[in-house]
Amino acid sequence: MALQVGDKIPHFSAIDTNGNVFDNDSIVGKKSHVIYFYPKDDTRVCTEQACSFRDQYEDFKALGAEVIGVSSDSVKSHQKFVKQYRLPFILLSDSDKKLRRLFGVPNDLLGLIPGRVTYVVDKNGLIQLVFNSMSGKIHIKNALEILKRM
Protein backbone atom coordinates (compact mmCIF):
# COMPACT_ATOMS: atom_id res chain seq x y z
CA MET A 1 0.00 0.00 0.00
CA ALA A 2 1.43 3.37 -1.03
CA LEU A 3 2.13 5.98 1.62
CA GLN A 4 -0.16 9.00 1.48
CA VAL A 5 -0.37 12.54 2.84
CA GLY A 6 -0.95 12.38 6.60
CA ASP A 7 0.77 9.01 7.04
CA LYS A 8 3.67 8.68 9.44
CA ILE A 9 6.87 7.89 7.60
CA PRO A 10 7.99 4.34 8.36
CA HIS A 11 11.31 3.61 10.01
CA PHE A 12 13.99 2.60 7.50
CA SER A 13 17.71 2.35 7.03
CA ALA A 14 19.86 2.04 3.91
CA ILE A 15 23.45 2.45 2.78
CA ASP A 16 24.41 6.01 1.84
CA THR A 17 26.93 7.31 -0.69
CA ASN A 18 29.79 6.94 1.78
CA GLY A 19 28.96 3.31 2.52
CA ASN A 20 27.51 4.18 5.93
CA VAL A 21 24.15 3.05 7.27
CA PHE A 22 21.68 5.94 7.16
CA ASP A 23 18.83 5.54 9.65
CA ASN A 24 15.91 7.91 9.26
CA ASP A 25 15.62 8.08 13.05
CA SER A 26 18.59 10.46 12.75
CA ILE A 27 16.32 13.14 11.24
CA VAL A 28 12.71 12.30 12.17
CA GLY A 29 11.77 14.57 15.05
CA LYS A 30 14.64 16.93 14.25
CA LYS A 31 14.03 18.39 10.78
CA SER A 32 11.81 18.26 7.73
CA HIS A 33 13.03 16.24 4.80
CA VAL A 34 12.39 15.56 1.16
CA ILE A 35 12.80 11.98 0.03
CA TYR A 36 12.78 11.53 -3.71
CA PHE A 37 12.81 8.21 -5.50
CA TYR A 38 14.23 8.26 -9.01
CA PRO A 39 14.87 5.55 -11.62
CA LYS A 40 18.62 5.62 -12.34
CA ASP A 41 21.85 7.56 -11.83
CA ASP A 42 23.34 9.43 -14.77
CA THR A 43 20.32 9.30 -17.08
CA ARG A 44 19.03 12.51 -18.65
CA VAL A 45 15.90 13.23 -16.58
CA CYS A 46 17.36 11.83 -13.34
CA THR A 47 20.47 13.98 -13.76
CA GLU A 48 18.35 17.07 -14.46
CA GLN A 49 16.31 16.35 -11.34
CA ALA A 50 19.38 15.77 -9.14
CA CYS A 51 21.05 18.93 -10.46
CA SER A 52 17.86 20.93 -9.82
CA PHE A 53 17.85 19.71 -6.21
CA ARG A 54 21.57 20.60 -6.06
CA ASP A 55 21.00 24.08 -7.48
CA GLN A 56 18.27 24.79 -4.93
CA TYR A 57 19.76 22.83 -2.05
CA GLU A 58 20.47 26.01 -0.07
CA ASP A 59 16.76 26.92 -0.37
CA PHE A 60 15.87 23.55 1.18
CA LYS A 61 18.45 24.03 3.94
CA ALA A 62 17.14 27.56 4.63
CA LEU A 63 13.72 26.01 5.19
CA GLY A 64 15.24 23.52 7.63
CA ALA A 65 14.90 20.53 5.31
CA GLU A 66 17.27 17.78 4.24
CA VAL A 67 17.15 16.23 0.75
CA ILE A 68 17.53 12.48 0.30
CA GLY A 69 17.61 10.75 -3.09
CA VAL A 70 16.87 7.03 -3.43
CA SER A 71 17.43 4.68 -6.36
CA SER A 72 18.35 1.04 -6.80
CA ASP A 73 21.82 1.97 -8.04
CA SER A 74 24.87 0.69 -6.16
CA VAL A 75 26.88 2.76 -3.70
CA LYS A 76 29.69 2.87 -6.29
CA SER A 77 27.30 4.28 -8.91
CA HIS A 78 26.03 6.87 -6.40
CA GLN A 79 29.60 7.88 -5.56
CA LYS A 80 30.36 8.51 -9.23
CA PHE A 81 27.07 10.40 -9.70
CA VAL A 82 27.69 12.60 -6.63
CA LYS A 83 31.24 13.40 -7.67
CA GLN A 84 30.43 14.11 -11.33
CA TYR A 85 27.54 16.49 -10.55
CA ARG A 86 28.72 17.82 -7.13
CA LEU A 87 25.56 16.69 -5.36
CA PRO A 88 25.57 17.97 -1.75
CA PHE A 89 22.77 15.77 -0.42
CA ILE A 90 22.36 12.18 0.68
CA LEU A 91 21.83 9.40 -1.85
CA LEU A 92 20.69 6.01 -0.61
CA SER A 93 21.22 2.70 -2.37
CA ASP A 94 18.03 0.64 -2.52
CA SER A 95 19.47 -2.26 -4.51
CA ASP A 96 17.01 -4.74 -3.01
CA LYS A 97 14.09 -2.31 -3.63
CA LYS A 98 13.05 -2.64 0.01
CA LEU A 99 12.48 1.11 0.39
CA ARG A 100 10.45 1.29 -2.84
CA ARG A 101 8.17 -1.43 -1.51
CA LEU A 102 8.00 0.16 1.97
CA PHE A 103 6.86 3.48 0.48
CA GLY A 104 4.72 1.85 -2.23
CA VAL A 105 6.52 3.62 -5.09
CA PRO A 106 5.01 2.34 -8.35
CA ASN A 107 6.76 1.74 -11.65
CA ASP A 108 5.89 3.86 -14.69
CA LEU A 109 2.66 3.24 -16.63
CA LEU A 110 4.20 0.40 -18.64
CA GLY A 111 5.71 -1.15 -15.53
CA LEU A 112 9.21 -1.03 -17.02
CA ILE A 113 10.85 1.94 -15.31
CA PRO A 114 11.01 2.48 -11.55
CA GLY A 115 8.76 5.38 -10.57
CA ARG A 116 9.74 8.94 -9.71
CA VAL A 117 7.97 9.98 -6.50
CA THR A 118 8.81 12.76 -4.04
CA TYR A 119 7.72 12.83 -0.40
CA VAL A 120 7.89 15.93 1.78
CA VAL A 121 7.97 14.95 5.45
CA ASP A 122 7.55 17.40 8.31
CA LYS A 123 9.75 17.49 11.39
CA ASN A 124 7.37 15.12 13.21
CA GLY A 125 7.60 12.47 10.49
CA LEU A 126 4.20 13.14 8.90
CA ILE A 127 4.00 13.12 5.11
CA GLN A 128 2.85 16.50 3.78
CA LEU A 129 3.23 15.84 0.04
CA VAL A 130 3.34 12.84 -2.25
CA PHE A 131 4.14 13.86 -5.81
CA ASN A 132 4.29 11.23 -8.55
CA SER A 133 5.47 12.36 -11.98
CA MET A 134 8.06 11.09 -14.44
CA SER A 135 8.94 14.76 -15.11
CA GLY A 136 11.93 15.53 -12.90
CA LYS A 137 12.25 19.28 -12.39
CA ILE A 138 8.68 19.94 -11.21
CA HIS A 139 9.34 17.85 -8.08
CA ILE A 140 11.66 20.54 -6.73
CA LYS A 141 9.13 23.36 -7.21
CA ASN A 142 6.33 21.40 -5.52
CA ALA A 143 8.52 20.33 -2.59
CA LEU A 144 9.68 23.91 -1.94
CA GLU A 145 6.11 25.24 -2.07
CA ILE A 146 4.99 22.76 0.59
CA LEU A 147 8.02 23.43 2.80
CA LYS A 148 7.36 27.17 2.66
CA ARG A 149 3.80 26.59 3.91
CA MET A 150 4.88 24.34 6.79
Distinctive features:
150 residues, disulfide bond, oxidoreductase, single chain, alpha/beta, 5 helices, 23% strand, antioxidant, redox-active center, 7 strands, 7-stranded mixed β-sheet, Glutaredoxin, globular, Peroxiredoxin_BCP/PrxQ
General description of the model:
Keywords: Antioxidant, Disulfide bond, Oxidoreductase, Peroxidase, Redox-active center. GO terms for molecular function: thioredoxin-dependent peroxiredoxin activity. It comes from Flavobacterium buctense. Its EC number is 1.11.1.24. It is a single chain. The chain has about 150 residues and is of the alpha/beta class. The protein has one domain (about 15-150): Glutaredoxin, CATH 3.40.30. Helix content is about 30%, strand content about 25%. The chain has five helices and seven strands; from the N terminus they run βββααβαβαββα. It has a seven-stranded mixed β-sheet. A hairpin with a 5-residue loop joins β6 and β7 (about 125-130). The two termini are about 25 Å apart.
Short description:
The protein is of the alpha/beta class. The chain has five helices and seven strands. It starts with 12 loop residues before the first strand and ends with a helix.
SSE diagram, text form:
Elements: E1 13-16, E2 21-23, E3 32-37, H1 44-55, H2 57-62, E4 65-71, H3 75-85, E5 90-93, H4 98-103, E6 117-121, E7 127-132, H5 138-149
Parallel strand pairs: 3-4, 4-5
Antiparallel strand pairs: 1-2, 1-5, 3-6, 6-7
Keywords: Antioxidant, Disulfide bond, Oxidoreductase, Peroxidase, Redox-active center
Catalytic activity: a hydroperoxide + [thioredoxin]-dithiol = an alcohol + [thioredoxin]-disulfide + H2O
Enzyme class: oxidoreductase
